[in-house]
Amino acid sequence: MTTTPIPTPTATPPDILRCAYMDIVVTDLARSRAFYVDVLGLVVTEESDTEIYLRSFEEFIHHNLVLRQGPVAAVAAMAFRVRAPEDVGLAEAWYQELGCRTERRINGFAKGVGDSVRVEDPLGFPYEFFYSVDHVERLAWRYDLQGPGALVRLDHFNQVTPDVGLGRGYLEDLGFRVTEDIQDEDGVTYAAWMRRKDTVHDTALTGGDGPRMHHIAFSTHEKHNIIYICDKLGALRMSDVIERGPGRHGVSNAFYLYLRDPDGHRVEIYTQDYYTGDPDNPVVTWDVHDNQRRDWWGNAVVPSWYTDASLVLDLDGNPQPVMARTESSEMAVTVGADGFSYTRKNDVEHGFKLGNTL
């Protein structure tokens, strides 16, 4: 990965449609299957003794999540679908001009996916770009299979990187648009939300030690589906997998719940953000000290949500080294003796929800 400015390639970038799937390594495939299938209800497209291919109920492509048995829990790829077959070659050329390592496989890296290219991007993340993919039954109308907590779509990824501004510029060159960000009065950027489809994001950049994966997010139709998931986890005596929420984000305005899988990979259950598809859609900038940016109701963010994230792998399957963030951390400037947050800016009466409450 680089810490120097990333040049803008002269090559044409690929036309990215959306985030499409994540390929993750898990250390106990049976335990992971129980979590993602038996508890969360994702649909099994196919499986073997070493890997499981899962999808959401409204998906028509082969999978949204791959679970692979391996020695170290990590993310092997964050995959995006492109608009046409030739865009795979455009992605390969674009990253090669940047000097990034690339690997192309005509028959794909995962079952059900055809011609694909994987890259080690300038930030150290393993990205994949593909068009060709097997179609499967879309189960949107199969209410006999869906439960009250049905996960209907893959919504986004979230990446932890030391320099959000650096990553933001590179992703804008790749064709992503910023919808929201968090900054301070000195112009330090703590997070940015980047989209290709017409929602708040397909991926987000969170400032921190990286490259690491913060979370993968699946959507439900409505808020009550998330409440049901919480009730189900309570009934199963699995409430300890709930890391944060349920609540409503300030950023994105979405209702959320964060869970941790058996390996600690973070999964967000997410619903009801807003449309961003107009070309002049305005960027929403949040003050890092606004106590409602991360939770609209002002509830405190648990420290693990800021500090914990999953390793990512290089193209050889080895964990990428993690580099420290040198700019201020969001947790440090908002929590504890050296940080502050407000509910009403310049209001000396803070109420009972102080920003330094954990």
From TrEMBL:
EC category: oxidoreductase
Annotated VOC domain residues: 18-132, 153-272
Domain of life assignment: Bacteria
GO molecular function, one term: 3,4-dihydroxyphenylacetate 2,3-dioxygenase activity
SUPFAM superfamilies: Glyoxalase/Bleomycin resistance protein/Dihydroxybiphenyl dioxygenase
Enzyme Commission number(s) from the entry: 1.13.11.15
Similarity comment: family membership: Belongs to the extradiol ring-cleavage dioxygenase family.
Stated name of the protein: 3,4-dihydroxyphenylacetate 2,3-dioxygenase
Organism: Cryobacterium sandaracinum
Protein encoded by which gene: hpaD
